Amino acid sequence: MTIEKGHLALRLDAGLIARLRNYAQADRRPVDAVVADAVEEYLGAHPNHEQRRAAGLAAMREYEAEYGPFTEEELAVADARIDRLMRPGGDDEHGGDPLEGGPPDGRDV
Fold it and tell me: Which terminus of the chain, N or C, has less C-beta within 10 A?
């Protein structure tokens, strides 16, 4: 299997470049290998909007398959929560306070 490689030029702060070179040297690895691993790790830990959306929709389908369709009230509460999250300065990444009453299975969604 052949892995196609490309070239990417970056502009980084001189202090960051020095730290990167020192790290790579101490780890006995080329700088590009350290950067590639760091980018892979970052992208794996930070899914993009579409990946998060797809995961959320899959979780909703799974929940509904087990517990039945969401009620209009549950959907309204979810819409309000999304509005809070999407506004500038909205709740933190975890969605702030749990929903009142919570889902039937006791999970905090």
Answer: N
pLDDT of residue 92: 53
How many residues in total does the chain contain?
109
Q: What is the DSSP string of 12-62?
A: --HHHHHHHHHHHHHTTS-HHHHHHHHHHHHHHHS--HHHHHHHHHHHHHH
**In this structure, what are the phi and psi dihedrals at residue 69, rounded to the nearest 5 degrees?**
-65, 150
Q: What number of H helices and E strands is found in the chain?
A: 4, 0
Q: What is the mean pLDDT of each run of 10 residues along the chain (109 residues)?
A: 83 96 97 95 86 89 94 92 83 51 53
CA distance 38 to 85: 29
**At 94, which helix (H) or strand (E)?**
none
Measured distance CA(33)–CA(50) in Å, rounded: 28
